[in-house]
């Protein structure tokens, strides 16, 4: 069966839960007008102005996913290796302006930075949101990474938290944290007449009582959420990936179920994963192809609409479609990258279907590719399923492939099935 490239950049997955959108593009150049004043929480984890070129370490083939020993390093993003601070701050300023435009009047903004730019970022946010809208400078402290002997080890990030207006929504009761025993240990311990134990302290003539069985809530120093360890099963291989628990805390206190959350530098899609799992709608944007592939994979079970360009490379695909009773069987037989691209995979000795990282089968209908089945390589599914079943509905059968180099291509049979 002959297959040819199909011209359709929009991909839709229907699944239970609120719908999200993933866009590959420059957040500062996209037309996001339709989202103005619609977003309840904007989180941005931009490049930190490290001067580094970050790479995405993507495992290849079943053995790569099982052992971690076969992988390729793909460009992820350049963190201002040549441009000066002014150009970086110009980018940050525009991002903050955009975030503010997107927010509803009761919305929250979280900007994740570190020691390199936190002082500049604070001033920029003050000038764009207004000093009176400052809520917190959250210190997220962790223990991962190396240690320094030249100065104290830098073991925290800063997350600046601003409100759009005084009508700000915030519900700390949605983010109880484990008891801070170290904070209450020095307080006097009592038991009340109902047998409940509590601690108390009297200062300035006022007595404060903390029941041991009442939830406690985080303050602005978060040391209870660890960064991901090397072997953390959440790890996608995308650099600078943040833990889902961090995003859960941010989203749960600043949004309600069904609200819209936006991440304008979504990287591997952590915010979107958290939003989907917590019943929030989401908008994720990232300029990079590696980021798109990583996020797309993590969202393979979510209700999402994806917008990303296809690669123009001369790829080759062989597949078969067999109509059954009420469904089509779609069999992926072969996938070939052009020779010069294959050279990049020499070290990993990968060819053919091993170069497929994820594939989706569905139907093209009304200018959209609607996905009904997928197979993505990840830790718990290292093997690629080569046969997928899709419902026998109206539309043209189609296959979307994302390969290990991040090439995205949509295919349809040259003659109708
Ligand atoms: C620190 S990473 C985000 C990591 C993410 N929080 C995660 O958990 O994976 C920063 C991201 O910003 C993206 N980026 C940089 N400039 C951008 C722009 N103008 N528009 C959209 N994304 C951009 C980079 O491609 C990179 O993926």
Describe this structure in words.
It is a single chain. The protein has helices spanning 61-67, 85-102, 118-129, 181-184, 244-254, 270-277, 289-298, 339-343, and strands at residues 3-5, 10-13, 20-24, 39-44, 53-59, 71-78, 103-113, 134-141, 156-163, 188-191, 197-203, 206-211, 221-222, 260-263, 281-286, 304-307, 316-323, 327-336, 356-365, 368-376, 387-391, 396-403, 408-413. The chain contains eight helices and 23 strands. A hairpin with a 2-residue loop joins strand 19 and strand 20. The model has no long low-confidence stretch (mean pLDDT 94). The protein has three domains: 17-176 and 219-302, Vaccinia Virus protein VP39 (Rossmann fold, 3-Layer(aba) Sandwich), CATH 3.40.50; 178-216, no CATH class; 316-413, Sandwich (Immunoglobulin-like), CATH 2.60.40. S-adenosylmethionine binds at residues 26-28, 45-47, 77, 238, 240-242, 264-265, 267-268, 270, 285-288, 291.
């Amino acid at each position: 069966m002959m297959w040819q490239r199909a011209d359709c950049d929009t991909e839709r997955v229907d699944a239970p839960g609120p719908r999200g959108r993933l866009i590959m593009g420059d957040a500062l150049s996209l037309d996001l007008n339709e989202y103005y004043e619609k977003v309840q929480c904007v989180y941005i984890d931009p490049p930190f102005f490290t001067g580094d070129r970050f790479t995405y370490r993507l495992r290849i083939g079943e053995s790569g996913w099982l052992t971690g020993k076969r992988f390729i390093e793909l460009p992820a993003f350049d963190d201002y290796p040549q441009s000066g601070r002014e150009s970086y701050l110009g980018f940050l300023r525009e991002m903050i302006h955009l975030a503010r435009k997107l927010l509803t009047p009761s919305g929250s903004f979280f900007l994740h930075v570190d020691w390199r730019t936190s002082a500049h970022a604070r001033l920029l946010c003050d000038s764009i949101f207004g000093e009176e809208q400052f809520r917190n400078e959250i210190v997220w402290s962790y223990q991962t990474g190396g240690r320094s002997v030249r100065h104290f080890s830098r073991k925290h990030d800063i997350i600046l938290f601003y409100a759009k207006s005084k009508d700000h929504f915030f519900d700390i009761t949605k983010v109880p944290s484990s008891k801070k025993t170290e904070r209450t240990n020095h307080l006097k311990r009592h038991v009340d007449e109902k047998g409940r134990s509590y601690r108390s302290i009297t200062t300035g003539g006022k007595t404060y009582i903390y029941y041991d069985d009442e939830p406690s809530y985080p303050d602005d120093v978060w040391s209870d959420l660890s960064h991901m360890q090397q072997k953390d099963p959440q790890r996608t291989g995308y650099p600078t990936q943040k833990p889902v628990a961090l995003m859960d805390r941010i989203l749960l206190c600043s949004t309600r179920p069904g609200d819209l959350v936006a991440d304008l530098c979504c990287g591997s899609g952590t915010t979107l994963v958290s939003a989907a799992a917590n019943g929030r709608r989401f908008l994720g944007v990232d300029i990079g192809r590696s980021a798109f592939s990583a996020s797309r994979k993590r969202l393979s079970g979510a209700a999402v609409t994806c917008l990303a360009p296809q690669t123009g490379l001369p790829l080759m695909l062989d597949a078969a479609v067999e109509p059954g009773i009420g469904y089509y069987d779609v069999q992926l037989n072969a996938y070939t990258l052009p020779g010069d691209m294959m050279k990049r995979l020499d070290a990993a000795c990968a060819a053919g279907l091993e170069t497929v990282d994820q594939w989706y089968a569905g139907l093209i209908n009304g200018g959209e590719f609607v996905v009904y089945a997928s197979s993505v390589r990840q830790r718990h599914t290292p093997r690629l399923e080569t046969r997928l079943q899709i419902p026998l509905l109206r539309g043209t059968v189609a296959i979307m492939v994302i390969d290990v180099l991040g090439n995205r291509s949509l295919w349809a049979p040259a003659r109708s099935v």
